[in-house]
Protein backbone atom coordinates (compact mmCIF):
# COMPACT_ATOMS: atom_id res chain seq x y z
CA UNK A 1 0.00 0.00 0.00
CA UNK A 2 2.84 2.42 0.84
CA UNK A 3 4.48 1.71 -2.52
CA UNK A 4 1.24 2.39 -4.38
CA UNK A 5 0.85 5.71 -2.51
CA UNK A 6 4.46 6.64 -3.33
CA UNK A 7 3.97 5.85 -7.04
CA UNK A 8 0.77 7.91 -7.15
CA UNK A 9 2.53 10.78 -5.39
CA UNK A 10 5.35 10.74 -7.98
CA UNK A 11 2.88 10.77 -10.87
CA UNK A 12 0.99 13.69 -9.40
CA UNK A 13 4.03 15.82 -8.48
CA UNK A 14 6.29 14.78 -11.35
CA UNK A 15 4.92 16.99 -14.12
CA UNK A 16 4.51 19.94 -11.77
CA UNK A 17 8.21 20.01 -11.01
CA UNK A 18 9.37 19.73 -14.63
CA UNK A 19 11.59 22.55 -15.90
CA UNK A 20 12.17 24.27 -19.19
CA UNK A 21 15.63 25.50 -20.13
CA UNK A 22 16.24 28.66 -22.07
CA UNK A 23 19.56 28.66 -23.87
CA UNK A 24 21.36 30.40 -26.69
CA UNK A 25 23.35 28.48 -29.29
CA UNK A 26 26.61 29.55 -30.95
CA UNK A 27 24.70 31.49 -33.64
CA UNK A 28 22.85 33.56 -31.05
CA UNK A 29 19.49 31.78 -31.56
CA UNK A 30 17.40 31.43 -28.38
CA UNK A 31 15.93 27.99 -27.70
CA UNK A 32 13.48 26.62 -25.15
CA UNK A 33 13.69 22.93 -24.32
CA UNK A 34 13.35 20.39 -21.52
CA UNK A 35 17.12 19.76 -21.78
CA UNK A 36 19.87 22.37 -21.93
CA UNK A 37 21.60 22.56 -25.29
CA UNK A 38 25.12 21.25 -25.76
CA UNK A 39 27.70 23.96 -25.83
CA UNK A 40 25.10 26.54 -24.94
CA UNK A 41 26.13 29.75 -23.29
CA UNK A 42 24.36 31.25 -20.27
CA UNK A 43 21.71 28.59 -19.71
CA UNK A 44 18.85 29.87 -17.59
CA UNK A 45 16.34 27.60 -15.92
CA UNK A 46 12.77 28.81 -16.28
CA UNK A 47 10.19 26.98 -14.17
CA UNK A 48 7.42 25.41 -16.21
CA UNK A 49 4.09 27.08 -15.73
CA UNK A 50 1.33 24.70 -14.81
CA UNK A 51 -1.65 25.21 -17.02
CA UNK A 52 -4.70 26.47 -15.27
CA UNK A 53 -7.53 24.00 -15.35
CA UNK A 54 -9.75 24.59 -18.32
CA UNK A 55 -12.88 26.48 -17.40
CA UNK A 56 -16.01 24.75 -18.48
CA UNK A 57 -17.86 26.30 -21.39
CA UNK A 58 -20.81 28.40 -20.27
CA UNK A 59 -24.15 26.71 -20.45
CA UNK A 60 -26.76 27.78 -22.97
CA UNK A 61 -28.60 29.60 -20.19
CA UNK A 62 -25.44 31.50 -19.21
CA UNK A 63 -24.70 32.39 -22.84
CA UNK A 64 -28.25 33.66 -23.28
CA UNK A 65 -27.94 35.74 -20.11
CA UNK A 66 -24.61 37.16 -21.32
CA UNK A 67 -26.20 38.07 -24.67
CA UNK A 68 -29.10 39.77 -22.87
CA UNK A 69 -26.72 41.76 -20.66
CA UNK A 70 -24.67 42.84 -23.67
CA UNK A 71 -27.82 43.76 -25.60
CA UNK A 72 -29.17 45.80 -22.68
CA UNK A 73 -25.85 47.62 -22.27
CA UNK A 74 -25.69 48.35 -26.00
CA UNK A 75 -29.28 49.65 -25.99
CA UNK A 76 -28.46 51.99 -23.08
CA UNK A 77 -25.42 53.27 -24.99
CA UNK A 78 -27.59 53.94 -28.04
CA UNK A 79 -30.20 55.79 -25.96
CA UNK A 80 -27.52 57.88 -24.27
CA UNK A 81 -25.97 58.75 -27.63
CA UNK A 82 -29.40 59.60 -29.05
CA UNK A 83 -30.15 61.95 -26.11
CA UNK A 84 -26.73 63.58 -26.41
CA UNK A 85 -27.23 64.13 -30.15
CA UNK A 86 -30.73 65.57 -29.58
CA UNK A 87 -29.30 67.99 -26.99
CA UNK A 88 -26.55 69.04 -29.38
CA UNK A 89 -29.07 69.54 -32.19
CA UNK A 90 -31.33 71.64 -29.94
CA UNK A 91 -28.35 73.74 -28.84
CA UNK A 92 -27.27 74.21 -32.47
CA UNK A 93 -30.78 75.27 -33.54
CA UNK A 94 -30.99 77.75 -30.66
CA UNK A 95 -27.60 79.21 -31.61
CA UNK A 96 -28.63 79.49 -35.28
CA UNK A 97 -31.80 81.36 -34.26
CA UNK A 98 -29.77 83.76 -32.13
CA UNK A 99 -27.36 84.36 -35.02
CA UNK A 100 -30.31 85.01 -37.33
CA UNK A 101 -31.74 87.62 -34.91
CA UNK A 102 -28.33 89.31 -34.55
CA UNK A 103 -27.91 89.49 -38.35
CA UNK A 104 -31.37 91.00 -38.70
CA UNK A 105 -30.66 93.60 -35.99
CA UNK A 106 -27.34 94.53 -37.58
CA UNK A 107 -28.96 94.83 -41.02
CA UNK A 108 -31.75 96.96 -39.52
CA UNK A 109 -29.25 99.27 -37.80
CA UNK A 110 -27.12 99.60 -40.94
CA UNK A 111 -30.12 100.49 -43.09
CA UNK A 112 -31.30 103.15 -40.67
CA UNK A 113 -34.25 101.17 -39.31
CA UNK A 114 -35.45 101.16 -35.72
CA UNK A 115 -33.22 103.66 -33.99
CA UNK A 116 -35.10 103.76 -30.76
CA UNK A 117 -35.93 101.53 -27.84
CA UNK A 118 -38.89 101.46 -25.55
CA UNK A 119 -38.36 102.56 -21.97
CA UNK A 120 -40.12 101.10 -18.92
CA UNK A 121 -43.20 103.31 -19.56
CA UNK A 122 -43.48 102.13 -23.18
CA UNK A 123 -42.23 105.49 -24.49
CA UNK A 124 -39.78 105.67 -27.40
CA UNK A 125 -36.27 106.78 -26.54
CA UNK A 126 -34.16 107.46 -29.61
CA UNK A 127 -30.62 106.12 -29.67
CA UNK A 128 -27.63 108.39 -30.06
CA UNK A 129 -25.12 107.81 -32.87
CA UNK A 130 -22.64 106.39 -30.32
CA UNK A 131 -25.26 103.92 -29.03
CA UNK A 132 -26.07 102.84 -32.60
CA UNK A 133 -22.37 102.35 -33.42
CA UNK A 134 -21.87 100.43 -30.17
CA UNK A 135 -24.80 98.11 -30.97
CA UNK A 136 -23.48 97.56 -34.50
CA UNK A 137 -20.02 96.71 -33.17
CA UNK A 138 -21.47 94.37 -30.55
CA UNK A 139 -23.56 92.57 -33.18
CA UNK A 140 -20.58 92.25 -35.54
CA UNK A 141 -18.35 90.92 -32.76
CA UNK A 142 -20.97 88.36 -31.73
CA UNK A 143 -21.54 87.25 -35.33
CA UNK A 144 -17.82 86.93 -35.95
CA UNK A 145 -17.25 84.91 -32.79
CA UNK A 146 -20.34 82.66 -32.70
CA UNK A 147 -21.84 82.51 -36.19
CA UNK A 148 -20.68 81.28 -39.56
UniProtKB/TrEMBL annotation:
<dbReference type="InterPro" id="IPR025392">
    <property type="entry name" value="DUF4124"/>
</dbReference>
<protein>
    <submittedName>
        <fullName>Uncharacterized protein DUF4124</fullName>
    </submittedName>
</protein>
<feature type="compositionally biased region" description="Basic and acidic residues">
    <location>
        <begin position="62"/>
        <end position="123"/>
    </location>
</feature>
<feature type="domain" description="DUF4124">
    <location>
        <begin position="8"/>
        <end position="60"/>
    </location>
</feature>
<dbReference type="Pfam" id="PF13511">
    <property type="entry name" value="DUF4124"/>
</dbReference>
<feature type="region of interest" description="Disordered">
    <location>
        <begin position="129"/>
        <end position="148"/>
    </location>
</feature>
<feature type="signal peptide">
    <location>
        <begin position="1"/>
        <end position="18"/>
    </location>
</feature>
<keyword id="KW-0732">Signal</keyword>
<feature type="region of interest" description="Disordered">
    <location>
        <begin position="31"/>
        <end position="123"/>
    </location>
</feature>
